[in-house]
Design a protein that fits this description.
The chain contains 5 helices and 3 strands; from the N terminus they run H-H-H-E-E-E-H-H. The chain has 104 residues and is of the alpha+beta class.
Length: 104
């Protein structure tokens, strides 16, 4: 549960915002970001699901902890790299898509 927006730092006032970790304006900005052409539609949808499930947390200003789909692994992710299997092969993954959505 979050008390402040992970993007702008403002206090979160309603339960839904506290659950996902973003205020309404920041969340709308994230949902309106267009990543088509960089990631597949399935990766973009998985990235939104990761954000909705609060499965992404900042570690450092440019590094994020992202949770795997089944919840058994945590990956270190940046916009250009990820510690998941796809990231190790230098391929785009939904973890990187989630970080790209949040940091735009």
């Amino acid at each position: 549960m979050h008390t402040n927006c992970q993007n702008c730092g403002r206090p979160l006032r309603n339960q839904a915002s506290r659950t996902i970790g973003y205020g309404p304006k920041c969340y709308r900005r994230i949902r309106n970001t267009d990543l088509t052409g960089q990631y597949s539609p399935a990766q973009i949808e998985a990235a939104f699901q990761l954000i909705d499930d609060a499965g992404i947390l900042p570690i450092r200003p440019t590094v994020w902890a992202t949770v795997s789909t089944d919840g058994t692994a945590v990956h270190r992710t940046r916009t250009d790299t990820c510690s998941c299997k796809a990231g190790a092969r230098n391929k785009p993954c939904y973890h990187r898509a989630a970080v790209a959505l949040i940091t735009r």
